[in-house]
Every structure is written in structure tokens, then in C-alpha cells.
Amino acid sequence: MPEYLGKEGNKLLKAIEEPPPNTVFLLVAQNADALLSTILSRTQLLRIPPLNMQEIANQLTTEHQINPDTAQQIAAIAQGNYNAALQLLSNANTNNRQMLLQWFAACLQNNVPEFARFTDEIAEKGREIQKNFIGYSLHFLNQCLRLAVLPPNTLHLDAREKELANQLLPHLHLPALQYLISSFEKADEHISRNANPKIVFFNLSVRLAEVVKGATVLNE
Prior knowledge:
The protein is an all-alpha fold. 61% of the residues lie in helices and 0% in strands.
């Protein structure tokens, strides 16, 4: 992660420019745009593309002996990142799909007691489970966005997820979906910073319920 070196990275410039004999430096970054220009100018940039979703699913199935449906779901959420897939695998017993179906159904009905109950339930789980659930929710919302503009055969959703997506879409136009995706991305950042999960998830519930009713201002 050389993008996090900041000004301290300048101390490495001489060694990177003239490394000792038989030495190769490999600097692995997720955001090349954040690298110091002085480091970038002394290195050869190789961009590694994301892994194919089917490759990740196959590896999870063969190496970790999980069923193909779960492997496909994890691979879709991981978006080409095998490390992310392994983190999701560690919480594979958490039924993200069932949680999301119940939560979104409660928000569709504006059932405040039910999504308050969901908020209390997920707040008791660990931060990694909460982040995995947000990641799964983002995957679902992105698939809803694709469903709105692309043929159904391009989606990575199972039958129950497609059913919920088709229930949601009549209530959501593209700006609303983009607003929700942005809200979930912010929630993921807040959870990473140890924000109060009850507040984070109740806020998401209110936003989702309001968007479905068409009551939310979408230009914040």
C-alpha cells in the first residue's frame, strides 16, 4: 500500500531508483492515483485486472468445499477481489439474502416496528458481519440498477432476489437507486469508522422507506 506512505515515501526514492544488486521492489497499490508522483516516475506500472467472477466461484467451490450457489453469490459480491471473497466466506453462515429480503419488505410496507427490530438485531452482530451485509446490499442495489437498463439475463441474482428487485423497481427511478447506493456506501464508511450501528442501520431503513414512498429529496 505505497499510496499511504505520504511524504515518508520520499525516503525510499534513492533505494527504488538504484536498488541493491539482485533486488526487485514490488509495490502493491489499490489506488495508483494516490501514489507520490516521485515514486510513480521511478516505477513501471502494471495494472492487474479483477478476477473473473466464475474463476472466484470455482476456486471457492474446489478449495473451500462450499456449495456452488453460495460460491456464486460470494463471487458476485466480491467484484473480482479474491481477498474480499475470502472475508465474505468467513461469514458465509450469515444469511444475508434472507436478512435483506425481510428488511426491504418491511421498508416497502413502511413497517417501522419491523425495521427497528432488524436494526436492533444487526447491531448485535460484529462489524465484519455488518460490513458484509452492506456489501451484499450494495451488490443487490447495483443489480437493480442493471435490471432497470439491461436485459435480465445479464443479472447475478437468484429467483427470490429477482422477485424483490421487480417489486422495488416500480417505486424507484434511476436517481433514487443511485441515491440509495450512495447512502449504503456512506454507511459502509461509517461502520468502518466504528459509528453506532443502530443509528447507521436505522438511518438506512428510514431512507429506503422514504425513497420507496417518493418522499426523499435526492439531491443532497
